[in-house]
Specification:
By secondary structure, this protein is of the alpha/beta class. Helix content is 46%, strand content 16%. The structure holds NADP nicotinamide-adenine-dinucleotide phosphate.
Length: 258
C-alpha cells in the first residue's frame, strides 16, 4: 500500500531513539522528508545518519521542546530547510515517579511542561500553515496509562498522559473544518535496546517474564517498529477518516472497556 507520504514534511519530537526514532524511520521509508529533534546532539546525529543512509532526507535539530527559544529555533530551521510542517508528531515524554504526597511542585511542573505544554505549544505553532494549505496531521504519543491506572508512583504520568488525550480530542474537533486531522496513540509496554523496559528486563528478567505473562495477552513486549508503522499510517491520507481518536497499540495489554 502506498501511503502517499512522499515529499511530505514531517517533524518527530524525541526522534533520536526509541519510539520516535522508529516513527521517523517508518515515515522516511515512505519518502517523507523528516526532521527529528532531541537534546543530545551525538545520538541525534547518529540516528539522522542511520536514517539518511537509506537515501532519505533527514534534518536533525538539537532542541529542548520545553524551551520557548528552542521551539522557535526548531520551527524556523525546519521551515527554512524543509518547508512548513505537514505532519507533526509530538512524541517526547517522561515521568518522575513517586507517591503524590512525596512529589514536589517542581516534579509536577517539569513533567507537565514536557508531556503536555510542549505538545500543545508545538501543535499551536504548526496550525496556521496547515490551515493555509487546507490539510495537515498532528499526532500525540500518549500511553495506555493515560487511559487507565498503571500502578503506584505513576500519578504525574497518568495525569499528563490523560490530559494529552483530552488535548488531542479537543484539537481534532476544532481543526476538522480546516482539513487537519488530530489523533493520539496509546502504546503499551514497548521494549527496545536501552529503553526503560529493556533496562527492567536486564535488571530482573524473571520478574519481567512474569509481568509479560500476566499483563500482555500477546505474550511479549511490543517493538518500536510496531509503533512506527501505526504512526506512518495515521500520518497518511490512508487514514483520512480518522480524527479525534486515541488508538491503543498494546498487544491487548490495556483493560479499559472504552
Ligand atoms: N517505551 C514505552 O514502553 C512507552 C509506552 C507508552 C508510551 N510511551 C511514550 O512514548 C514516547 C517515547 O517513549 P520512549 O520510550 O521512546 O522514550 P525515550 O527512550 O525516553 O526517548 C525519548 C526521546 O525524547 C527525547 N527527549 C526527551 N526530553 C526531551 C526534551 N525536553 N526536548 C527534546 N527531546 C527530548 C530524547 O532524547 P534526549 O534525551 O537526547 O533529549 C529521546 O529522543 C513518550 O512520550 C513515552 O511516554 C512509551
Amino acid at each position: 500500500m502506498d501511503l502517499g507520504l512522499t515529499g511530505r514534511v514531517v517533524l518527530v519530537t524525541g526522534g533520536s531513539r526509541g519510539l520516535g526514532k522508529a516513527m521517523a524511520t517508518a515515515m522516511a521509508a515512505e519518502g517523507a522528508r523528516v526532521a527529528i529533534c532531541a537534546r543530545d546532539e551525538g545520538s541525534l546525529a547518529q540516528t539522522a545518519e542511520e536514517i539518511s543512509g537509506t537515501g532519505a532526507t533527514v534534518l536533525p535539530v538539537v532542541a529542548d521542546v520545553t524551551s520557548a527559544e528552542d521551539r522557535g529555533r526548531l520551527m524556523a530551521e525546519v521551515g527554512d530547510r524543509l518547508g512548513s510542517v505537514e505532519v507533526l508528531v509530538n512524541n517526547v515524554g517522561g515521568n518522575r515517579r513517586g507517591a503524590i504526597c512525596d512529589t514536589t511542585d517542581e516534579d509536577w511542573q517539569a513533567i507537565i511542561d514536557l508531556n503536555l505544554m510542549s505538545h500543545m505549544q508545538l501543535a499551536r505553532s504548526v496550525v496556521p500553515a496547515m490551515r493555509e494549505r487546507g490539510r495537515g496531521v498532528i499526532l500525540f504519543t500518549t500511553s495506555i496509562y493515560g487511559r487507565e491506572y498503571g500502578g503506584p508512583g505513576m500519578s504525574i504520568y497518568h495525569t499528563t498522559k490523560a490530559a494529552v488525550i483530552g488535548l488531542a480530542k479537543a484539537l481534532a474537533l476544532e481543526l476538522a473544518p480546516d482539513g487537519i486531522r488530530v489523533n493520539s496513540i496509546a502504546p503499551g509496554s514497548i521494549r527496545f535496546p536501552g529503553g526503560s523496559w529493556d533496562k527492567k528486563c536486564q535488571a530482573d528478567p524473571e520478574a519481567m517474564a512474569a509481568f509479560v505473562k500476566a499483563e500482555i495477552p500477546m505474550g511479549r513486549f511490543g517493538a518500536a517498529e510496531e509503533i512506527g508503522d501505526v504512526v506512518a499510517f495515521l500520518a497518511s491520507d490512508r487514514a483520512s477518516w480518522i480524527t479525534g481518536a486515541c488508538l491503543n497499540v498494546d498487544g491487548g495489554q490495556s483493560r479499559s472497556l472504552i
